[in-house]
Design a protein that fits this description.
Blueprint (H helix, E strand, L loop, with lengths): L1 H18 L3 H11 L7 H11 L9 H16 L3 E22 L7 E2 L24 E2 L4 E9 L5 H9 L8 E5 L5 H10 L4 E5 L2 H4 L19 E2 L23 H6 L8 E4 L1 H8 L28 E22 L4 E11 L11 H19 L6 E8 L2 H4 L1 H9 L1 H7 E6 L9 E5 L4 H10 L10 H5 L8 E2 L8 H7 L4 E6 L13 H8 L4 H19 L8 H17 L8 H25 L8 H16 L21 E4 L2 E7 L1 H13 L2 H26 L4
Parallel strand pairs: 3-7, 4-5, 5-6, 6-8, 10-11, 10-12, 12-15, 13-14
Antiparallel strand pairs: 1-2, 1-9, 4-9, 9-11, 13-15, 16-17
Helix pairs in contact: 3-10, 10-18, 12-16, 14-18, 19-20, 20-21, 20-23, 21-23, 22-23
Length: 700
Amino acid sequence: MFKSTITGFIAIATSICFLFYSPSQNSFYHSLFISDSLSNNDSISNHLYMLTRRPHVAGSEANAEAAAYVLSTLTSYNIKSHIKPYYTELTYPVSRSLVLTPPPPEPPINFSLQQEIYENDPYADVADQVLPTFHGYAKSGTAYGPLVYVNYGRVEDYAKLKERGVNVSSNIALARYGKIYRGDIVENAYAEGAVGVLIFTDRKDYGGVKWFPDDKWMPPSGVQVGSVFNGAGDPTTPGWPSTEDCERLSDDEVEKTGDVPLIPSLPISWADGEAIIKSIAGDIASDDWQGGKDSPVYRVGPGPGTVNLTYIGKQVISRIENVIGIIEGAEEPDRFVILGNHRDAWTFGAVDPNSGTACLLEIAERLQKLQKKGWKPRRTIIFCNWDAEEYGLIGSTEWVEENRQMLATKVVAYLNVDIAVAGPGFEAAATPQLDELLIQAAKQVEDPDNSSQTIYDSWISSTNSPVIDRLGGGGSDYAAFVQHIGVPAADITFGGGYPVYHSMYDDFTWMKKFGDPMFQRHAAVASIWGLIALKLADDELLPFNYLPYVLELQKCAEDLKGEILNISLTLVPLFNSINELKKAAIKINDEMKALEGRKGLTFMWKDGQKVRELNDRLMMAERAFTDREGLPGRSWYKHLIYAPSKHDDYGSKSFPGIDDALEKAKSLNTVDSWHSVQHEIWRVSRAITQVSLCLKGELT
């Protein structure tokens, strides 16, 4: 009995000592992870080639084959993996037509709406598998009328048209893509009374003197396709997962949500856009509305050119497939660090999204090599390869909705990469408590375009300090994690935007010639993405710091203060709550420093429990920014600090509920509308107070 007790004590002590094994071991494995000895550019290139051999839109056989490739690759690295299917409503084109009737004597033009194959195109034999150009979830129907040029289709663009006396009502809006999300272009046009929308990729923004395959720019026939759905997840299952036999909204009910368009639309090329521009008369548009060199003069209309636009689509309940891989944590298996990237593409998807998929698989391979050398993650690492992101973040949203409670209590952070590489230049976005972690990781990884410096050095070369954007926009799969359940998150990329976005020219050839010929940028993304994940998975104390959050909130509050000058509203509760958060952030940082200074033989059970409890406070504090009622009129969005702008799903708004209420109050100017603004200020203040209480870890 005595012997077994001693043995048991030794086992427990050994386990505890392993739990807090020296940071130098972590440092060794983390340095090894980013070393040249583990990275494999050729493997990344091969993954990308294999994933992009065919167009693979969500719901297609080709995308199921791509899922099988990801699954088999993860499995080959001894990562326990499975496919999680959902059954979601997707839309596909049946027929389209566009006829322009210019002023006499010019004859009508019946546009082919075809993206052209170029000479010696290596993908010519599968080009017919690219779907006809269309907008996902576009309204089926026919629209006829004179054309009005509306620039980028923003709210402020329509205000300028009104100042000129130009009315869009009963006309067709011609917008150029850029600045805002295409779904908001259509929604804004509908709000102004337009009966249809054409969106073209302007040569000024996407074209050049030469174009692909001779240069990186969009060819004249290139078309940027994409979704015009303004929600997140399957439109027929808002708030619950799209399992095979689940409850669904009817088509009429979906339309009443306001998230799908109510007028038809089509995406068109810059060549077709310029032909249409030539048919529009009226006032000359202002300089900032004009096209580039050699473009025709842009006029606003309306008419005299008219178009007949017809789009017929079909709605199909389609099987989509998320691929999930899990490396279980050795000491805290119930705490999850999630890496996510989507797999589906509108066409070949070499940049968007499979540059990210290739990097995800590279990280998995490197972690297998670390495991062979003795590394085990402290916390569980989960690989998520999402499906149907392009239609509306569907795969990730359905998974989060299905696993909401478990994720809300167990996820440390979500790390997203959509486009891993589109060119040079590191960019990052995050919830602010991860800012310092991003910076530290960037200081450790070599700049792929200049071996004499780190990514951090190049990141600050033009600004003297790193620019970290926020995750309020709805542009990728972090949305459900941050905006719905309140999980700390980050999103990284190299290169930002690129000219052949969402066109059939986003293929392996474009990447090899212009995006990343040697795949060194891909390797760098894998290094920094994986290093951030390792720090979150292995560090005893989570590397979170909420003081940058305080600074961010203070800045946003000051900006808001400037907007409500001379208005009888008070921001006192907001500033007071931010001050309390500052005190809480300082307090928990002090607690972390105290624990870090007490490691040694006495750092056993009691302090081990303290680490766990403190980490839980750091992890759960982000959840406290959410409110169960969500934003007014947008209840799926629960986060009161970060959510998409009401008129631009890609745009990030701080205090989105306050911003929405303020816009409404300025329009209505009623007592009730201003009262609603004050109510939203109080709601945000209460949420920030909850975050402070969570960080303090004490009951009132």
